[in-house]
Amino acid sequence: MNAIPKARYDTVSMLIHWVTAALLIFMIFFGEDLMATEEEVQEAGEALAGTFLPSLHVSIGVTILVLTLLRILWRISHPAPPLPPGMKPYAILASRAVHGLFYLLMIGLPLTGWLAFGELLREEPAMAAVRVFGAIPLPASPAWGEWTAEVHEIGSNAAMVLVGLHILAALKHQFIDKDGLLGRMLPH
Question: Domains (ranges, CATH) in the chain?
């Protein structure tokens, strides 16, 4: 008996996608602000000082990493629905490339952030109080130098570009191509 290919992602895939997307977009807009040092926060007159905001930044990064790993594991046993018929080969290639880069960034950004944290601790010892989910101390990372923070920032900028491309492509498929691609990731 031949199974009819599903036309939509399953509920777990949708949930992981949208939660990860919301967290990633939040980090794109506010991630750098969350890592302001206590001195910078006090100079700006902000109410939340200390390590609460950096802890939030780290916790969201860890959540994105865990959700991405879960998404990969889920995807192994729950393949994506087929792309719309008639999609051009360049569009298929672009889609695969963007999704591959997203996975690379959603794993790489938390890891490069962790590596950059070692250098931050050397410069700002008070950051040792940062806690993942408010409870778990961030494991020490080697202080490899400022290049780790630069790589993290480049990755963040690349994520901004990819999110923009992803949204524009989804809107193009919805309103220009009208091929139902966006509906595969939307709940009924």
Answer: 11-182 (1.20.950)
